Amino acid sequence: MNALEFDRYSIRFGDFQVLREISLGVEEGSFVAILGPNGAGKSTLLKSVLGLTQGLPQEGRVQISGSVRVLGKDPGEVPPDWMGYVPQVKGFDRSFPALALEVVVSGLRRSWPLRIRPEERRRAEAMLEQVGALHLAGRRLGRLSGGELQRVYLARALIREPRLLLLDEPATGVDAVGEADLYRHLEAYQSAHSQGAARVTVLMITHDWEAAQHHASQVLLLNRRVVGYGRPEAVLCHECLAEAFGHVGHAHSLVMGR
Ligand SMILES: Nc1ncnc2c1ncn2[C@@H]1O[C@H](COP(=O)(O)OP(=O)(O)OP(=O)(O)O)[C@@H](O)[C@H]1O
After folding, report:
1. What pLDDT is stored for residue 58 in this prediction?
2. Is the dihedral of CA 221, 86, 78, 14 positive or negative?
3. Residue among 13, 90, 227 whose CB has most ligand 1 atoms within 8 A, to mutate
4. Average model confidence (pLDDT) for the chain?
5. What mean pLDDT comes out for the span 3-10?
6. Atom number in ligand 1 closest to CA 41
7. Which site among 65, 134, 135, 213 is 20 to 30 Å from 155 CA-CA?
8. What pTM value is reported for the model?
9. Which domains are present in the chain?
10. What is the ipTM of this complex?
11. What is the DSSP string of the chain?
12. From the CA of 45, how far away is ligand 1's center (Å)?
């Protein structure tokens, strides 16, 4: 089964066309890196999968045409347990007076935990341990580095063992070790769920072409429309990158050198 099906999906905010005629099938078990210039519609695409586009604040009317199916359902009907989301680290409000453990438990409850039950604590600690962050459980968010925060939010996203994991630039502001750890955890999670009917699909927005080349099974090159979708070696070619970005800058040697 395809985890995601876009059929001529378009979205417009007032006069502004953000996504145009997206048609695409993402096979279950894929690791998709979404690449494209600023304003290409990458986050809007993720929000569409999360079923959040209708509630967006906007200047004009939101117009949506075509369809998106997520794990065989309309996005608004997907059980919350099936999807995990890791937002951009750079956008976090660190002044929020919360402990890392509470953030992870909030992923279990989908609400803020005023009192943490022993079973919730056990599960949250086990998850933090799995992503190498158990030592952070009692720390306040404001005291965490970008990489530490990213681990806590990854634990929060994984705690219900989602079938679809969505990440919005999770490695931005994270050092090389933190980034390598992130990919290791994602790959371990995917391979632990690689058998049987429910294979895990990962969708990650990134600006890191090299990481996409090494870790993704598929690359989606987006610039309001699909410029390319397929194996990294096919999509990260000079022509596709030039079409999406207008120029290929530093990645020229990377893609041309292969
Ligand atoms: N709610 C909204 N109302 C009006 N315009 C919006 C809204 N959300 C996004 N846009 C516009 O749609 C375009 C695409 O935004 P989006 O955040 O999806 O791009 P992106 O590819 O994720 O960009 P970046 O790489 O900069 O994060 C932008 O020009 C943005 O200003």
Report:
1. 52
2. negative
3. 13
4. 86
5. 96
6. 18
7. 213
8. 0.88
9. 2-256 (3.40.50.300)
10. 0.94
11. -EEEEEEEEEEEETTEEEEEEEEEEEETT-EEEEE--TTSSHHHHHHHHHT-GGG---SS-EEEEEEEEETTB-GGGS-GGGEEEE--GGG--TTS--BHHHHHHHHHHSS--SS--HHHHHHHHHHHHHTT-GGGTTSBGGG--HHHHHHHHHHHHHTT--SEEEEESTTTT--HHHHHHHHHHHHHHHHHT-SSS---EEEEE-S-HHHHHHH-SEEEEESSSEEEEE-HHHHSSHHHHHHHHSS-TTHHHHHHT-
12. 10
Range among 106-120, 144-158, 169-183 rated most confident: 144-158
More confident residue, 6 or 55: 6
d(CA 7, CA 25): 9
- Residue 59, pLDDT > 70, answer no
